[in-house]
Amino acid sequence: MDLINAFMVLMNFVIVPATAYAAQLSLGALGVTMIYGILRFSNFAHGDSMAFGAMATILFTWGLQALGVSLGPLPTALLALPLGIAVTAAFLLGTDRAVYRFYRAQKANPVILVIVSMGVMFIYNGITRLIIGPDDRNFDDGARFLFTVRDFKEWSGLEEGFGLRSSQAITLVVAIAAVMLLFWFLNRTRTGKSMRAFSDNEDLALLSGINPEYVVRVTWIIVAALATLAGVLYGLDKSFKPFTYFQLLLPIFAAAIVGGLGSPLGAIAGGFVIAFSEVTITYAWKRVLTYALPDEMAPDGLVQLLSTDYKFAVSFMILVVVLLFRPTGLFRGKSV
Amino acid sequence: MSETARNIGLFGLVAALIVLTGVVQSWNTALVILNMGLVSAVMALGVNLQWGFAGLFNVGVMGFVALGGLAAVLVSMPPVGAAWAAGGGRVILGLLLGAGSIAAAIFAWRALSGRTRGVAVTAIILVGFFLYRAVFDPAVEAIESVDSASTGYLGGLGLPVIVAWPVGGLLAAGAAWIIGKIALGLRSDYLAIATLGIAEIIIAVLKNEDWLSRGVKNVIGLPRPVPYEVDLQQSETFAERAMSLGLDPVTASGLWVKANYGILLAIVLLIVFVLAQLALASPWGRMMRAIRDNETAARAMGKDVTRRHLQVFILGSAVCGLAGAMMTTLDGQLTPSSYQPLRFTFLVWVMVIVGGSGSNLGAVLGGFLIWLLWVQVEPVGQALMSVIASPLPDGSALRDHLLASTAHIRLFTMGLVLLLVLRFSPRGLIPEK
């Protein structure tokens, strides 16, 4: 039995990657939940908004690289992020002006807005592929690792160790900063408070003189920032491919629903639930168990509950369990 | 202009466009478009049942279509005896064990209460899962190692492929029942997300469960309900008839086979269309529309809204499954990697919305029109792009990029068409009466 080494393997293959993935999902789910809370529909175009944001950032990154700008060990994409966010925000605001505002004024049924967002998704998808193409793009030009498994082994003298990729560390730092900023904004500023009021009770908020169009505009800007962050961090950590962002829609929605649609705290919790379940269920536990169990009990097979091809099934299963037993989600979001 | 005249005009336009394709490109292409248009029309009728009649938002059309395709394989391919001998029984036993433990868990959940319930259900699921894996995994390995280059799967029942069409509907209906049970009765977006999920999972199963569908190795050479071109070319009577029409036998055999398919598909489309029309006009159809238009009022009138929704959801998905089986028969092969949500889910949605939600005639029109558009946007886009790119110098990067990306214009156009119709003509080309 060797619990320390078992834990190190677990850190390297489960805890660290799952935490980074959870942070990315949470940022995505926060965007979905914000739109749901303020605009009251499930935005199917969110995955492709993330792809658009990531694409805008990649284009600026290439521009900066061409100018010879570099952040040293950090990826240049971090410098391009604010520009990417600005472009995405303008893009989403333009979409709202051209598409969603009409249905808002009509007080259309939410399901119509969902279908409209599907049309928007098509268009975003087309635009992203038109501009950058459907292929994989790797735009991480910083240092690969903060420390590698080997560094850790040499430092600690253990048989096993864990490495920390810089993209994972950046994901965590940026995500934590973004979430803190978001909660500060929602809880402390006047605009944030009016947004929460609008989300809780639209009529009452209108009566107290809150300008709904202003609230909606601020929401889109925040959503653009969150989507771009999520898209860029996911792209840095894995790689940028427009189609994977469409596929992220399911885990992101699962995270938002598990946490309770409309609840920002819930979106973060949901992101962690989904990410950790996905990684633990599709991880082959053989090495961990070989260390953790006495020799005679060591497993022969891979001890993998589900193959990684079925990772979407995990989000789906969790979604099903939540829908069956607690349709409002962990944090009691809105249920209509 | 009267409504009938308008409708005849719209269908005439589609027919004219198909004939134009025949004249400009080739009659072969025109027939291919027509056949796929017939299949698309059936799919659109299925989605129209769900959305147009009942206001249910199904984003998993692709999954149900793929299940229909699986049915075509499972029914029509000859069984692989060696694979059945190697592990057929064990695979079925494993699946039964899995299903049995889920049933036992549900039973325990209902029968017990308090803390014992949670413990018992968890224990049943865990034990059941490991039992299932212990039986299932070795059986799968045994099956997949049977001549994996050409078979490596259990094969089908060896029945005529037409039998697969209703079976495809049944498979899809079964999947729809499970999803409906879970997600109906909650808010409308939940159904959308649940169907999005199940569609991805069905495709993942088809891609990865080689014992069932050969996965990404594809199943090719499905039996046909119509004669083969080669046989026709060798038949003297056929050759004579082709000659008398002034066609060479090779072209004629291709056209004749496609026309045969077209007739079969058209019969199915007609049956589904008539049934859907009858349903729409029946008291059941009126009740469905009443529920769609005002759920609360319908509930107050004593209608079991969730049950009705489940019913229509299953029916609509079954029609999609039927269309999926027809499509796979038409293709003659099952290629799991060709199922793309944009092509099979969202395109069908565009068909329904453009045609006119709630109108069966509209769904049929939308099926043909949007399919035609989908096929023809690419060559038209190619031409458009070369015009746009023509002022750019040869070999410039932007020019190459523009020319290379015409394929993505399709997505953009479809989204734009959907948004424009929703905005300016939300009732579609042939509005619901």
UniProtKB/TrEMBL annotation, chain A:
InterPro entries documented for this protein: ABC_transp_permease, BCAA_transport_permease
One Pfam short name: BPD_transp_2
Domain of life: Bacteria
Main location: membrane
Compartments where located: Cell membrane
Keywords associated with the record: Amino-acid transport, Cell inner membrane, Cell membrane, Membrane, Transmembrane, Transmembrane helix, Transport
Protein topology in the membrane: Multi-pass membrane protein
Family to which the UniProt record says this protein belongs: Belongs to the binding-protein-dependent transport system permease family. LivHM subfamily.
Designated name of the protein: Amino acid/amide ABC transporter membrane protein 1, HAAT family (TC 3.A.1.4.-)
Organism in which the protein naturally occurs: Palleronia salina
UniProtKB/TrEMBL annotation, chain B:
Keyword Transmembrane attached: yes
Residue ranges of the TM segments: 7-24, 30-49, 56-77, 83-107, 119-136, 156-178, 190-206, 261-282, 309-327, 347-375
A GO cellular component entry from the record: plasma membrane
Pfam family, one: BPD_transp_2
Subcellular location: Cell membrane
Membrane-related topology note: Multi-pass membrane protein
Family matches, as CDD domains: TM_PBP1_LivM_like
MF term (GO), any: branched-chain amino acid transmembrane transporter activity
Annotated protein name in UniProt: Amino acid/amide ABC transporter membrane protein 2, HAAT family (TC 3.A.1.4.-)
Organism: Palleronia salina
